């Protein structure tokens, strides 16, 4: 066997699990396209609406409940209707499966990873419903891969945006922090503040000091605030200390 034949067989072996992951990840999209119903009429629809109209109402890009990073990334896909978010999740799910395969050493495990991931009922439903968990999972795998490659700065930059993806960051980020500290990467630790810092600056530029705004005021062109937002916008910082 020549070197060229060897390289061809290696490329086929490497690309096989990747093609399989993307093909299997397409199943939720096919099911969604063929289904007359809506798999999640609650959060799934709301996430689509936030992503679809965020550029018409820019305040939606900073809404913490909607997960700002998800809203931003999903906004171009939302132009394709609700199934556009499913398409984005399909790409994220396939990337996650490939990433898991990259973390394992055996070729058999690289084929098994997409099966175990995409055939999990809850995960399949989240992909098909356009939910935010899929993005967080992809980011988590990306962070782990970067950490194992000793690209700590890039890992922490990616991890810094995870609080704007899912609340599960509160369990994941301490592990990242401990790993970086274990490797004495002290200079890279401030990068964990990047994501929240960027969005904090954007929010301040967009809204200013919300603690002193009137409950009835809002930026022209933005949707009316919900009752909970009205209450929060009228509370001063000292009120939280008084309630302790």
Unreliable residue stretches: 5-10, 211-232
Q: Main β-sheet: number of strands, strand sense, barrel status?
A: none
- Number of helical runs? 12
Q: Fraction of residues in helices?
A: 55-70%
User: Which secondary-structure class do the elements indicate?
Assistant: mainly alpha
Residue-averaged pLDDT, rounded? 82
In sequence order, what are the helices and strands, one letter per element? HHHHHHHHHHHH
Morphology call: flat
Strand content: under 5%
Tally of individual domains? 1
Tell how many strands the DSSP assignment holds: 0
Radius of gyration, rounded?
Answer: 21 Å
Distance between the termini: 75 Å
What does it look like?
It is flat and about 55 Å long. Residues 5-10 and 211-232 have low confidence and may be disordered. The protein has helices at residues 3-34, 43-53, 68-78, 82-103, 107-118, 121-129, 133-148, 152-160, 169-182, 194-207, 227-233, 237-242. Helix 3 packs across helix 4 (82-103) and helix 4 packs parallel to helix 7 (133-148). With 244 residues, it is an all-alpha fold. The chain has one domain (12-208).
């Amino acid at each position: 066997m020549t070197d060229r034949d060897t390289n061809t067989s290696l490329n086929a072996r490497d690309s096989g699990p990747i093609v399989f992951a993307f093909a299997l990840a397409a199943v939720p999209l096919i099911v969604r396209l063929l289904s007359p119903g809506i798999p999640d009429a609650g959060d799934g629809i709301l996430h689509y609406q936030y992503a679809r109209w965020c550029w018409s109402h820019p305040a939606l890009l900073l809404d913490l409940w909607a997960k700002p990073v998800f809203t931003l990334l999903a906004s171009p896909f939302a132009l394709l209707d609700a199934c556009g978010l499913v398409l984005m999740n399909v790409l994220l799910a396939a990337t996650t499966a490939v990433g898991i395969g990259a973390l394992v050493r055996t070729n058999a495990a690289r084929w098994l990873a997409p099966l175990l991931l995409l055939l999990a009922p809850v995960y399949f439903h989240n992909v098909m419903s356009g939910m935010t968990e899929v993005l967080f999972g992809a980011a988590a795998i990306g962070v782990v891969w970067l950490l194992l490659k000793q690209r700590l700065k890039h890992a922490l930059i990616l991890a810094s945006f995870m609080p704007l993806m899912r609340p599960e960051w509160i369990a994941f980020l301490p592990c990242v922090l401990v790993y970086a500290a274990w490797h004495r990467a002290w200079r890279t630790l401030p990068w964990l503040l990047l994501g929240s810092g960027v969005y904090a600056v954007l929010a301040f530029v967009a809204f200013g000091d919300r603690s002193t705004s009137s409950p009835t005021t809002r930026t022209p062109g933005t949707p009316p605030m919900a009752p909970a937002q009205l209450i929060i916008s009228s509370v001063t910082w000292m009120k939280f200390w008084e309630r302790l």
